[in-house]
Amino acid sequence: MSIATAEIRRRAIDAYKMGKGSQADIASSYRVDLRTFQRGLSRFNETGQTAPRPRGHRQALYSRKQLKALAQLGGKHPDATLEKLKNMSGVKGSIMAVQRALNRFPGIKETLHASEQDRADVNLLRKQWIQEVAKLDPSRLVFIDESGAKTNMTRLRGRALGGNRLFAKTPYGHWCTTTLISSVRLDGTTFSPDSFT
User: Which of the residues 48, 67, 96, 185 has the least number of beta carbons within 10 Å of its own beta carbon?
Assistant: First the structure.
């Protein structure tokens, strides 16, 4: 449905005010969506305007200057919640607006490190460990990893075209776990599980 011009909106509102039909009747006869007509009538009663509001994307809540300030706040307070950042920025808006603004800075990411790393004794031990590891022969190293899969990890939801059901199958009633232990060396050979015993 195309946008109703200010003239069509004015005529529809006039017809409704003169009692020529219900809102649904007037909207139908002027080929305007009922909800659009109701919003236009409400806007006319509040402001006296019949012209449609400008269309397009919402104006960004944060200006460029405010975006930079928000990014700096995020850097100074890395553990601040979105709610805190919103309050500190002083910009009125939703938490999602803060999230969308921060998404425009792909470098902002929180990575936790153990606070003990800042202690002098731990820092010294870390440096010593790095020196010891540097002396190891990489060809003698074996990297072991355990991985597992459970039958209850099956996704419970999916997508199907409208009007069609989505069917999937999974084992019922007996959730099982399959565990796999594997290893790899620098040359690509695997480590035999028999060597564990």
Answer: 48
The one-letter amino acid code at 191 reads F
Angle 114-137-181 from CA coordinates, rounded to 5°: 65
Residue 156: pLDDT band (50, 70, 90) is confident
Rounded CA separation 170/93 (Å): 44
| Cα distance between residue 30 and residue 39, in whole Å | 15
Per-residue pLDDT, 1: 42
Average pLDDT across the chain, whole number: 80
Output 44 or 56, whichever has higher pLDDT: 44
Q: What is the mean pLDDT of residues 120-138?
A: 93
- C-alpha–C-alpha distance, residues 51 and 33, integer Å: 15
Q: What is the pLDDT of residue 2?
A: 54
Domain locations in the chain as residue ranges: 6-47, 64-103, 137-155+169-197
Tell me the CB-side half-sphere exposure of residue 137, using CA atoms within 13 A: 3
Q: Are 62 and 88 in contact (CB under 8 A)?
A: no
Residue 102 in contact with residue 70, Cβ under 8 Å? yes
**CB-neighbour burial class of residue 72 (10 A; exposed 0-12, middle 13-18, buried 19+):** exposed
pLDDT for res 127: 94
The CA distance from 103 to 97, in Å, is 10
